Amino acid sequence: MGFGELKEGMGYYVSIFVGLILILKWGLKSVNEWIYETKLGKKKRESLPPGDLGWPFIGNMWSFLRAFKSPDPDSFISAFIQRYGSNGLYKSMMFGSPSIIVTVPEIVRKVLLDDDTFKHGWPESTIEIAGRKSFIGISYEEHKRLRRLTKTPINGHEALSLYIPYIETNVVSALDKWSQMGRIEFLTELRRLTFKIIMYIFLSSEIEHLLEALEKECTILNFGLRAMAINVPGFAYHEAIKARWRLASILDGTINERRKKRETPQGITRKDMLDLLLESEDENGRKLDNEEIIDTLIAYLNAGHESSGHITMWATIFLQANPEVFQTAKEEQEKITKNMPPGQNGLTLNEYRQMEYLSKVIDETLRVVSFSFMTFREAKKDVEFKGYVIPKGWKILLWYRSLHHNPENYSKPKEFNPSRWDGYVPKPGTFLPFGGGSRLCPGNDLAKLEISIFLHHFLLKYKLERENPNCPIRYLPHPRPKDHCPGRVVKVGK
């Protein structure tokens, strides 16, 4: 056999091999479609939005994780747009379920507001960590009752007024302490500060060892909330399950101690959220059991320090990186301080409501960072949008990050520009940093209050010198610098 014949033969076998690989790939990529789409029937199947369900069982999770572990998390959605057009609805297989990704504002808003057609749709693995009686695991009716119980004591006018002195005292003390410590991990210290505040509001606790133990477990738990559900030692989900058990054990003991303390009239000096949860009862006189209270506390403790701590860090970073914005915000805070009534010590809600420019800084931070980049719902019945069908039982992934970073909604969306909010009211469904509808984050007002008080005192007297301003960002479970933002808080004011 001559060289030419050998070469031709090798080419033939290579072609066969490549063909077999492509057929195998096509077959594997069709497995999920066969499992989940065939049962829908031809008409409904043909009405599904464009997209693909990815690899067997894994679905699109590898491409999702690859994008969110890269410097460009938006490449995940961009890939759908490039392949299937900019219609804003894409079928996919995410977190173990057939799903429809939604990036259209009006549809996102419709899904959030229509509780008769859509229910919560968080993955079973997430509910396992957060708790089956948590906000994300309970029915609409139970959620409404629990939200009504907890919203006013957290976000009500009287409650916010009561929290301001405690928040401000701890902020002033923390900033002074950090300025004397030299090098710190700015994000780590902020998370400790916000956790201390939320612990005081919910459990009246400032006990150092209890704060450290609970904060540690909440951190581990948070890392597993959006991880792949691999319950094997060494994986984030497995560690989160163990943290959940330890956290529940600590809180169960705390609740039992409080129940005993409440049996004596002198046992309670001030009512916190735990007392309110223990006192609550439905129309039939049924009180919350320990599991219900534990799941509620875990939800608030975790969200209450993670979101506030991270957003405060990013707002500080953006202010420091934009001197003109910093100066404008500082001048506003100086004016507010100067105009305080004689004899008044500290901020009140009156001063907080005057922080108009600072509020724009915080809204712009929330938009750019998109701390919660998406949320889950599930269709209770077949639903039609834009000529496409979302089948009953399929998940709907409302992709907030895409809404916040879409140039059709915000000019130059990657740019940090608080002035874009001057006289601007975002179109419905385009600005959802705390979600929307009946499941809007119940602690949103408290979070903005905490952030504002911190930034008020930081702007007046401090600056942040980052050790590594070009540090890469990690986007899961939330955007943050990989090094947790080490640096120095430097005192510059009187």
UniProtKB/TrEMBL annotation:
Keywords: Heme, Iron, Membrane, Metal-binding, Monooxygenase, Oxidoreductase, Transmembrane, Transmembrane helix. This is Cytochrome P450. It comes from the Eukaryota. It is found in: Membrane. GO terms for molecular function: ent-kaurenoic acid monooxygenase activity; heme binding; iron ion binding. PANTHER family: CYTOCHROME P450 26, ENT-KAURENOIC ACID OXIDASE 2. InterPro entries: Cyt_P450, Cyt_P450_CS, Cyt_P450_E_grp-I, Cyt_P450_sf. Pathway: Hormone biosynthesis; Plant hormone biosynthesis; gibberellin biosynthesis. Catalyzes three successive oxidations of ent-kaurenoic acid giving gibberellin 12 (GA12), a key step in gibberellins (GAs) biosynthesis. GAs, which are involved many processes, including stem elongation, play a central role in plant development. PROSITE patterns: CYTOCHROME_P450. Belongs to the cytochrome P450 family. GO terms for biological process: brassinosteroid biosynthetic process; brassinosteroid homeostasis; gibberellin biosynthetic process; sterol metabolic process. Its cofactor is heme. It is a single-pass membrane protein. It comes from Deinandra increscens subsp. villosa. Heme binds at residue 441. GO terms for cellular component: endoplasmic reticulum; membrane.
